[in-house]
Amino acid sequence: MSYVTDKWQKVAMVFCWVTISHWDDDIWQTNDTFLAARMRALVESGRMEIRGETARDIVFVEVRLPSARG
User: Fold this and answer.
1) Are residues 64 and 6 in contact, defined by beta-carbon separation less than 8 angstroms?
2) Residue 47 and which of 7, 10, 22, 62 are 20 to 30 A apart at CA?
3) What does the angle CA 25 – CA 30 – CA 33 come to, to the nearest 5 degrees?
4) Cα(51)–Cα(10) distance, integer angstroms
5) Measured between alpha carbons, how far is residue 38 from residues 24, 33, 35, 41, 68 in Å?
6) What is the pLDDT at residue 54?
7) Are 10 and 64 in contact (CB under 8 A)?
8) Whose CA is closest to 61, among 8, 17, 6, 1?
């Protein structure tokens, strides 16, 4: 969640930031399959919004924090 903003951004970019943030740790506790499942759960719970042709293609799909609804 800390790498998702209120602006649309590619899921692949979010995954890159997560990976880079742990680069120096030499501990890989996650992979793209886990991140995709976690992101899907966050979208289903309403904590993130998603748009794109298919939720499986991380290159074209974008996410953001939910816009304020008034």
Assistant:
1) yes
2) 22
3) 155
4) 10
5) 23, 9, 5, 5, 22
6) 61
7) no
8) 8
State the Cα–Cα distance between residues 68 and 12, nearest whole angstrom: 24
Structure-token match 């816009």, residue found: 67
pLDDT by position in tens, the chain (length 70): 888 999 999 988 888 888 887 777 776 667 778 888 888 899 999 999 999 866 566 678 899 999 865 4
- What pLDDT does residue 28 have? 65
CA atoms of 21 and 48, how far apart (whole Å): 20
Q: Do residues 65 and 6 make contact, with C-beta atoms less than 8 angstroms apart?
A: yes
Gap between the Cα atoms of 45 and 59, Å rounded: 22
Residue with tokens 């590619």: 10
